Structures are given as structure tokens and as C-alpha cells.
Amino acid sequence: MRFKRNSLFVKMMLMFFALILPLYGLSVSLTYNSSGQMRGAIERSNESVLLFHYANLQFEFARMNGLLLEYSVDGELADFSTMAPVLSNYEIDRRLNNILQKLRQMQASSPYIADVRYYLPALGKVVSVKEGVSDSPSGEWRELAATGASLRGTVAETGAGYFLAGSAPYSLDASADPNFLLVIRLSAEELTKQLQSIQKEGEGGAYLLFGNADRAVVSDEALRGQFDGFRFAVDEGAAAGMVVRDETANGYFYSIADPVYDFRLVSYRDKETLLEPIRRYSFWMLLLTAVSCALIVVFTYGIYRLIHRPLLKLIRGFRAMERGDMMTRIEHGRGDEFGYLYGQFNQMQHRLHELIEDNYVQRIRTQDAELKHLQSQIAPHFLYNSLFTIKQMAELENTEDIKVFSDYLGAYFRFMTRDFNKEVPIGDETEHALVYLRIQEIRFSNRIAIEAEPLPDEFRSIRVPRIILQPILENAFKHGLANKTSGGLLRLAAGSVGRTLALTVEDNGNGLGDERLRQLQERLAGISASGLDGETTGLFNVHHRLRIRFGPEYGLELSRSPLGGLRCDIRLPVRP
Predict the structure, then answer these.
(1) What is the dihedral of CA 240, 245, 247, 253, to 10 degrees?
(2) What one-character-per-residue DSSP string does 215-284 give?
(3) Taking the mean position of all CA atoms in its chain, how far away is CA 85?
(4) Is the C or the N end of the chain the one with fewer CB within 10 Å?
(5) Is pLDDT at 570 greater than 90 in this prediction?
(6) In this prediction, what percent of the chain has a pLDDT beyond 70?
(7) What DSSP element (H or E) covers 479?
(8) What one-character DSSP code corresponds to residue 46?
(9) Three-state DSSP class for 206?
């Protein structure tokens, strides 16, 4: 397939290259330039996480140490340790139970407290939240006292775990036995959970070291082997509360030391795992470089086929219209935007054909319709019948009815002859129809009753073509109620649904069969517009004028009235 230099395909491909390649080059440049920033951001993120958990541990240790200080000077604990030798067994049991309750309150105050113990060297007893009251081996409390339990807050490490211990009175020298020893055993499980919240899956682990770091609490036992490498990395030490970063062959260590409680918090990040996203992203960027050019060409050719070929079909249709062929249609089965364009093109062509035909034919039809309309406005038989009615009332010397009838007749002809405006307010049109009905009511007072609802004030200003109600009323009198010798009823009503105003004219005539109603509906819909007889010319004329003025959704609708005769609904827009 050949493409011209100025073809759509070449232009689109150059446009895509001109647009995408600079953006792609900028993206590659930013990627490589920001790799250092990414590493820095990762380091700062690791440091922030470490500082957060360090502050949490520091807060918990400070709170537990505060509890030791508070309970070490508690009167009941201090008095019992000195008064126990002179107390009765009952009093000793009672006070031990009270002390146990206090120890339980102390243990429940923090999730990091696994057990609280109260040692009484003089009695050789120990009160434990976990084990209750029992005998205490002398070596156990001496080992804890030897760790420096003097309410300094440092964490002691023994074979049984990690402890915060305080002795009383703590002013005595180290060689004297304390009155009592209050010890908090830390929960290794909770400390491990804290470290696991620092650990990121597949990226390293976390450690917590106490004292000389002979042992460590780790987030994952599988990573304990990394601990030995870290011990050499932190020999230099660092300022308290400052994060120290150290790089080894396998990864990065971030540590922070606390001299008050003698612990160090460490997080470890595997180097391969940490840098793998950057290397993988670089590889994909290089691969994308090679694939992008091929994709641009393929995408451009696909867009060319997707747009250019449908456009050619549309262009051929316009060229046919330029040649004067107004009957050409674009046949298609598409459901996309081009299908919509094709459908609109066919509709536009059909509409243009109608407008062109109307431009030449409608003038003749309009002139003929206006001629018939003017003839129906001043129908001789209506004038003759009206004069005959006046004559009858004069013979009966009914001067009052003559006066009323003459007023109605004058208003009727004044409306018919006052001007030749094509449109009037619907309020004036309705008043004229009511005048016509009053005249007919006087003429057929013994045969036909008339019910007319007033038009709501909010609709009276709508402008409509002149004489749209009278032809429908005439049709009702002439064909619906003509054979009614008594009991005839004609009803005029108004109502609105949404943005549509409906004027309804209906009667109770009995001469309308179902077949005749169907024929009227078909003729009114334009199924058979030719050969209209005099019976439906008035209806069709009104319907045709309303559709021309307001659109195909407005006009007349014919149906069977609940009264039994014909129902005619005049549908008008509320805001024309």
C-alpha cells in the first residue's frame, strides 16, 4: 500500500512521533536522574519508621519504669516487707492478696508486661501475677538484684528473659539485702509483634537488643543469622536518639540507641530486594524504548484504517450531494460514532429533500389552504342560520335574546375580520371558540348541551395559528351531533402534561364506528393524505398547520371519547 507524503497516515505517524518521543525522552531522563532521590526517599522512609517505633518503645519503657517508681514507694508493699515477721498468718495472707491485686493492676496497664513479681528476701517468698504466692529461691532474686536493679530504668537480661527491676530501699549499698524487690518481666511476644510491624515482607527484618547485646529479640527467627554481621557494624556507637545507617555486602542496617533504658532498635533491609524495583524499572524502560516505535507505527496504521476508510464513505456521500443526487443513502451496519454520523447524514439528506420539496410545493399548498380557510371563516350557511335564528326570535318578540345573540354574533365576526395575523394568543383563540359555542348553544338549546372549562391563566399567552378550535367544533356539530334530536353533549376542556398543553373537544355522538375512526386516524397521520373529503378537511388543515408550526410531535390526536363519540386532543407546546 502506497501512502502519499501529505496523506493522513504519514501525518498521523509524524504527529505521534513528535508528541510521544519528547515525552518519552523526558520520562527516561527523569527516571535515571531520580534514582538517587528514590534511594534517598527509601532511606528517609526507613528512618522515619524506625524513629516512630523507637519513640513508642521509649514511651512504654518510661511508663513501666514510672510504675516501678510508684509501687516501690507504695506504703503497703514497703510496710509488709518490714512487718511480716511480727504479723499473724492471717494478716500475712490478707496483705499478700492485696499486694497480688496491685500487681495485677500493674500488669494490666501495658501489653508489654508479661508478669510482675514482688520478692521478699526476709520471708523467702515471691508474689507473681502469673504464679501467685510461692517460695523464692535465693539465687533468683540475687541474680536480678545483681543486674543493677536500683530504679535506674535499665532493662536487665537474664536467662529467664528481660526485666525492669527496682529494689527498696534503693539507698543501701550493694552488699545489703533489700527489703523487697519489684520486678517487671517484659513480654517477648509483644516485643516481637512490635518488631514485625517494622518488618516489610521480603525486604528484611528488625531487632531489639538490650545491654551488651548478648541476645536479641528478632522479628523473624529466619533472619537471626544477620545479627552477627550487625554487631560489628555498630561497634562505633552513635549519639543517643540518632539513626545510624550502615551498609554491608548484603544490605543496610538502620539503628538507634537509647542510653536510659539500655536498648538498641535496629531494622535491616535486604539490598537486592530494595534495589530490585529500580533495576526492573530501568529494564522495562529500555524495553519500552524498542517497543514504542513499533507500537506507534502499528497504532497509526490501525487508526488510519479505523478513521480514513469510514471518512471516505462519508466523503463519497457528500460528493454525490454536490452533483445533485439527493436520493443517495449510506448503507451501513455500524453501531459506533461513524454509524451515528451515517445515520445523521441520511436523515439530513432526507430532511434537505423534504425542505427543497416544501420550498416549491408548500407555497401552493399554503395558498390553497389559506383560501379554504378564509372561505370557512365566513361560511354563508352559518351566517344564514344565524340570521334565521334572529328572525325567529324577532317573531316571538324575544328582544332580550336577540340582544344577547347579536352581541355574540358581532364578537364572532369581529374576531374573524379584524386582522389577518397568522398567530394569536391561545386565550383569544379560546374566547372566540366560546363565542362560537354560545351562538350554537342558543341555536340548539333544546337539543345540545355545552360544557366548557376555562383555560388556566398561565397558558393564555401562548401564541398559536388562528382558527384552530372552530373547525374542530364545527366538525363535532356537523358530523357528531347532527342527528341528535335531544341529549346531545359537547365538552371543551384544557390540561397539561409536562411541557405539553392539551385542548380536548369531545361529544357523545353515536354515528362514529370503529372502522371510520381508524380511517380518520390513518388520514390524520398522513397514511392516506390524498382524497380527503369535506368531513375531514377541517381537521387535517388544523393538524397540518400545527405540525408545520411546532413540529411533528404536536398536532391532533383522535380517539374514542368516554362519552361515546369522537375525542380530539389538540397538543400544543407549553413554551412554543
Answers:
(1) 80
(2) SEEES-GGGTTHHHHHHHHTTT---TT--EEEE-SSEEEEEEEETTTTEEEEEEEEHHHHHHHHHHHHHH
(3) 77
(4) N
(5) yes
(6) 74
(7) none
(8) H
(9) strand
